[in-house]
Design a protein that fits this description.
alpha+beta; Cytochrome Bc1 Complex, Chain A, domain 1; 2 domains; 6-stranded mixed β-sheet; 5-stranded mixed β-sheet; Pept_M16_Zn_BS
Length: 469
């Protein structure tokens, strides 16, 4: 997805407004103890014991994603993720998944701009089995050329289904390519179709050899486990993989934007759509710097606008007989290995234009820059954010993915708890200040979807066989 609502790394689960705000604001969940080990070959191993159920999540995240690709080879990180399921020196294609299923587990993988992740959720007493399997394919992935060619066709069909046939996905793909000039975030994770057409098996093999090295990956285990036993298993299976140096990365910093950018995409669609993307700072550390402080205030601003049912955008633009929009949204990217955006978006109501909605979205920001937000609004947002931290702990998958994301971005593993304390200190004046600072024309790129007639006889594209996620 092109954006996440609110704080992207906290996996916020918004709570019903009927819950007592001040009671929840004082709620503190028991924070699970996190153990971190470093293997001699460079692997980082993170273990978080959670004894509430006899299950465990085992995850490997590699600090490589689409941002590590080069022009002409886009989509290689994603196709390689698919190929990790296609065999090793000891396993045939598909055997990995069959074995995990036989253990009573479920598994999948994902590719992002910043990282690639592989995970299994299994009965805790089968942890050793999946650690052995995952370490094997990390170190010994191999497959014949024909297997790659077949999987490449699956990925192409995935691109057709999820991007080419989805008007808003097409818009965001074009929008990212317009927003960014130097940053590798300008390229789509799934890759440009022309690059997929010319991709070879050895392109994927070379990318694998280049980036899948122990010091570029983290092993995460969360659940009903003994940290000391996990360390022993990690040393047994991951520790035997030969160490290699992590390849160097050159900075590809985005130059300052010097004027508003606009684009339009025409595609068969039922409704128009408008997206506004403003360049904003990213959270880089727990150090109190102007940029880091602003990222917190910007996230609070996004929640004020769109953090709960009946928030400002919803109340102002989608309600009443003369409403401007069928739907609206706001989000702040917050953190990542690359530059971040604050986004506003919406679908105009019947009889309304994208230009009217664009102006109205910006007007809500201007209103906050002029008048600020009330203490009641501010407290409500903080309460919901803090409560989300309590509920987040119910999912061991969320715990593992959050810890992995912090490692990928070079943030402390206890970032979540420490950010809560910083959040408590965000004031109405802070929110007012960022609303005035970051929403001018020079930081803005606008994308508009112009709907074209939809073929009534067109049938939805079927998901390709072998599509994993």
């Amino acid at each position: 997805m092109h954006r996440l609502r609110g704080f992207s790394l906290l996996f916020a689960l918004f709570i019903p407004p009927v819950l007592a705000p001040m009671a929840l604001a004082q709620t503190t969940a028991p924070v699970p103890k996190t153990d971190v080990f470093k293997l001699k070959n460079g692997f980082t191993v993170v273990v978080q014991a959670d004894k509430r159920a006899p299950t465990a999540v085992h995850m490997v995240m590699v600090r490589v994603g689409s941002m590590d690709e080069v022009d002409g080879n886009t989509g290689i990180a994603h196709i390689l993720e698919h190929m990790l399921f296609k065999g090793s020196r000891t396993l045939k294609a598909g055997e990995f998944s069959r074995r995990v299923a036989a253990l009573g587990g479920r598994e999948n993988a994902y590719t992002m701009r910043d990282a690639t992740g592989y995970f299994q959720q299994i009965p805790a007493n089968r942890l050793e089995d999946v650690m052995k399997l995952e370490a094997d394919r990390f170190a010994n992935n191999q497959w014949p050329d024909d297997e790659f060619k077949r999987e490449l066709e699956v990925v192409k069909e995935e691109r057709r289904m999820r991007t080419d046939d989805e008007p808003r996905s097409l818009l965001w793909e074009a929008l990212n390519a317009t927003i960014y000039q130097a940053s590798p975030y300008r390229r789509p994770v799934i890759g440009w179709m022309g690059d997929l057409d010319s991709m070879t098996p050895n392109d994927a093999r070379d990318f694998y050899k280049h980036w899948y090295v122990p010091a570029n990956a983290v092993v995460l285990v969360v659940g009903d486990v003994d940290p000391f036993k996990v360390k022993q298993l990690a040393e047994k299976y991951y520790g035997r993989i030969p160490a290699r140096a992590v390849p160097g990365r050159k900075p590809r910093d985005e130059p300052p934007q010097v004027g508003m950018r606009r684009l339009e995409v025409k595609a068969p669609a039922e409704q128009a759509y408008v997206a506004l993307a403003f360049k904003v700072p990213q959270f880089t550390s727990l150090e109190s710097t102007p940029d880091n402080n602003d990222t917190l205030a910007l996230t609070v601003l996004s929640f004020v606008l769109d953090g709960y049912p009946g928030a400002r955008l919803d109340r102002a633009l989608t309600q009443g007989p003369d409403r401007l929009a069928d739907s609206v949204g706001a989000g702040n990217g917050f953190s990542g290995r690359g530059p971040q955006l604050f986004t506003l978006e919406g679908v105009p109501a019947q009889g309304k234009t994208t230009e009217q909605l664009e102006a109205a979205l910006r007007a809500e920001i201007t209103k906050i820059a002029r008048d600020g937000v009330s203490e009641a609004e501010l407290n409500r947002v903080k309460t919901q954010w803090i409560a989300s931290e309590v509920y987040k702990l119910d999912s061991i998958m969320n715990q593992a993915r959050e810890l992995g994301s912090y490692w990928i971005e070079g943030l402390p593993l206890d970032t979540s708890e420490r950010i809560i304390e910083k959040l408590r200190r965000v004031t109405s004046d802070d929110v007012k200040a960022v609303a005035a600072k970051y929403f001018g024309d020079d930081q803005l790129t606008v994308g508009v979807l112009r709907p074209q007639p939809v073929d009534p006889n067109r049938k939805p594209r079927a998901a390709p066989a072998g599509l994993r996620h």
